[in-house]
Structure prediction request, 418 residues.
Amino acid sequence: MGSVANVAELDASVVKITRSTDLRPVPAPGSPEELSHSYCTDHMATARWTITNGWETPEIKPYGNLSIPPTASCLHYATECFEGMKVYRGFDGKLRLFRPDCNGERLLSSAQRTTLPSFRYEELKVLIAKLMQIDGPRWLPKDQPGRFLYLRPTLIGSGPHLGIQTPKEALLFIVAVPWPDPSQLKKPGQAGKPGLKLLASAPDTIRAWPGGFGNAKLGANYGPSLVAHGKAQAVGFDQVLWLFGEDRQVTEAGASNFFVVWENKDTGKLELVTAPLENQLILPGVTRRSVLQLARTEMSKSVGSLAPVEVIERDFTIGEVEQAWKEGRIVESFVCGTAVRFNSHTYYPRDMLTRYQYYITPVKVIRNGDVDMDMLEAGASRAGYAVQLKAWLEAIMFGKDGQENHEWSYIIEGESEK
Prediction:
């Protein structure tokens, strides 16, 4: 949405702060409150925008419900976008964000796709930092490194105007939520290998299309996909592997980016393959971007027992995956994303580790029609790329193993002692 002259830009350098006088109990790891994915920290950040005046002074205030009119644009015309991020308590005691400008830039792009107001995306990390300066010390104590909070920055059309028109008012808000950590929830003697079970989508079910908005993080992308997701869960699968077109191109897995490591049938070389961004069928994930950069810089040569891989972004089909599996050319497959996501509380605690997404998660099985492809056993002797990539990412996120000052980290200073 184009900017209007003489209106205020989003500026997080000055924030109005109202501290809560009724602090919420911090939930224990694995508690019902934490598993609810809805128990927020004590405070939230908000910033209001109007077409007349632009952005108002942002606020940090006690967490609470929003007040919007029943005619709000977001409720009728899906003028809403959001981001998924985390703040990490590092092993050096510091709070970190992981590549927050990538999330800010993507939120801006999503906002523009759904006619919400523009903003300086660099301000997002500053506003988050001010929120975490207040809530970080209590919700992520320095003596408990390795923990994190999930962050949900959201921008909605909040004005009362019915009718097909661009929003005249909008609200940016940010909440922080304790999120289950599978490493703390694993039960002694828990059986089963970790990994997701994916069900290939039916030809008559489409998540995104060229020229659409599959590359924007809009609520409108997710609601319509829940029907297929529910059907997949009902027959024992975790997520849908979304396919597109008559040739059934592989795009995303649930709300995650999908990767496969295989042996090229012509050259015999190993490739790390994922769908491209150019046709707007997939979300440009921040974790995806990081995986590709790490793989290109660190995996072009051998890493321990791992052979070099070539990184490929191209269209590929479920037929190619199935052929590679039948010919023994599959090494492994995985998905990546920000959130640790449990599909149903009915899965807890049974088989917990097979039903989450934790930065990078292996794919266990892909069902395409009447064919079940075992992706864990396919190339087990050569696998390990997902594990290595995950280790590199975690070192950066939590500031360990010599990665305390990595360029992808944004360190939050000035935590409150109150």
